[in-house]
Amino acid sequence: MMAAVGAVAAVVIAAPVAVAAPGDGSSAGPRTGEPSAAAELARPNFKMPFLCGQTWVGSNWDGHSPGHSIDWNHYAADGSTDDFGRRVFSSAGGKVIASYYSTDTGYGNTVVIGHGNGWQTRYAHLKSRGVSRGDTVKQGQRIGRVGASSAKYELSPHLHYEQIHDGSVVVSVIQGVRWSDFMKRSQTSRNCG
Ligand SMILES: [Zn+2]
Prior knowledge:
Keywords: Signal. By secondary structure, this protein is mainly beta.
């Protein structure tokens, strides 16, 4: 539908990305999205942010902002999307760093969870948030519902998902699958508690 196309275009400009200087010789950080080897060892065993057994289609499309973020959609048997209101679960255990409605970015209702060692996950455009700042969450705990919220853009429902290390969005690793740029694929949640 046309709304989806508009959503894609809008998200591109929703959140400017800091660009590392080219040719800085670094093999880690925001330019490539690959965390350092030490950070990689400390990365939690992130699961999909959805109910155990559900299959979703993710895309970390070229031009998505911030880079390496994944947009998730769920499809009904007839091929239409039926994302709205579906439950969102924490990818790993941790502590809620932020739960807010963003008025200065396109994120809308947003939850950020800290997992230690500089690792965070972000969940955006939520219909509703089920946790508050300071809450402790377990892997697989419900933290909100999929929506289309944004202060700036008219979106079609989807979950915007980021894995963050030391403040930079990095290439996600979910249930052992490395989401190198740029992929569109289905994955089934094993966030089974
Ligand atoms: Zn997105």
